Amino acid sequence: MSPRPAQNHFALFDLPARFAIDLDALNQRYRLIQGEVHPDRFASSPPAERLRSMQLATQANTAYQTLKQPTARARYLLQLHDIDTEEERNTAMPADFLMQQLEWREAIEDANEDADIAALDSLLNEIKTTGKQWQQDLQHALDVAQDWPAAAAIVRKLSFTDKLQDEILHAISRHED
Amino acid sequence: MAYSDKVLDHYENPRNVGSLDKNDPHVGTGMVGAPACGDVMKLQIKVNDAGIIEDAKFKTYGCGSAIASSSLVTEWLKGKSLDQAAEIKNSAIAEELALPPVKIHCSVLAEDAIKAAVADLKSKQPGSTQARNQAGNQATKEAV
Questions:
Q1: One of B66, B106, B108, B114 is an active-site residue; which one?
Q2: Which residues, at least 6 apart from A148, have a Cβ–Cβ distance to it below 8 Å?
Q3: How far is A23 from chain B (nearest CA, A)?
Q4: Of A60, B47, B69, B74, which residue is the least packed, with the fewest Cβ within 10 Å?
Q5: From CA A85, how far away is CA A79, in angstroms rounded?
Q6: A30 vs A46: CA distance, rounded Å
């Protein structure tokens, strides 16, 4: 029997809807579903069943990408609670947070101009460490305190550091070429 | 993404990049950030004794549209009163730069930066309603 469409991303992988997640279970169940809905298995099935397996494969992909990345997982969890993280509209970040962002941006710019990979690496580590701390705060806000506005504010902060990490990784690979 | 000529012009020759002394009582600083794209914008205005903006500087880390939006508003701000400055709308910025819908949030960021800079300046002016309100809010917050 092939799996049925699930109510939400967590349910699809038979996981509790929480921020703290069993990543091994997620990976394992994702691979299982992928195998079950593989197009090869439905090559000779009626069109309706083939379509359904394709839809399920798409849902599994989207769900997996969303749940494996912490910020996306938190954003989705908040969505399930009808909370908008307002990342398009809410520009009023705390002043000390913005100062830190400006400083990091300046440091990245300098390191980039000097093609200083060691400096970029150390910035990446610093930003990762900060991001990890925020993820712990996020876990507390979501799974323990159930303080949705606080969680949404942390998601907004993490979307800045996620972006910075992507940019640094991109810069490092450019300099290494 | 295809940028308009005006965006490219501001992006390649940004006006008024830099900083003003944020501790100067005549300087207002507005800092805002857009989580959706990770852009950070710092906008500063300096007023003369008549309350007219005589200088504006910006520093923006972000895409071409965010840089162009902040560069453009520094030009617009000079010669305006604080009330006139606060009336600048993101739709006017987006229209002037011909921003596509997906880049409208860059103009929102610039509008919010102006508002933040004006609010910062007003809060610095002794005896202003804003300063009193802020002091009041602060006192209330501390009391809670």
A1: B106
A2: A78, A81, A83, A141
A3: 26
A4: B47
A5: 8
A6: 25
Write down the ipTM of this complex: 0.73
Digitized pLDDT (tens) for each residue of chain B, 144 residues in all: 578 899 999 999 999 999 999 999 999 999 999 898 889 999 999 999 999 999 999 999 988 999 999 999 999 999 999 999 999 999 999 999 999 998 998 999 999 999 999 999 999 877 655 544 554 444 444 444
- B40 to chain A: which residues are within 8 Å by CB? 98, 101-102, 105, 160
Q: Which residue has the tokens 């100062």?
A: A99
Contacts of B11 (CB under 8 A, 6+ apart): B3, B64, B67, B68, B71
Eight-state DSSP code of residue A119: H
